[in-house]
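re: that chain from earlier
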Amino acid sequence: MYQDEWLLDSPHLHHFIEMVNDIRRQEADSQAVIARIRPHFARLLNDKSWLPEQYQEPAEESG
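^ sequence. v structure.
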């Protein structure tokens, strides 16, 4: 059985992933899935309280 692995163990992130998986189970159309996830994803990105500061900084080795 597949088990999730978490680099960042955050209740906010767990909730988001559970919600995404629920939506994916309910919708067959990928465009509908994206449309339903989009507002939740925007809220997650706008809420910096759950993401540790070290992950909010650009990575030096990133392009």
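The chain has a mean pLDDT of 90.
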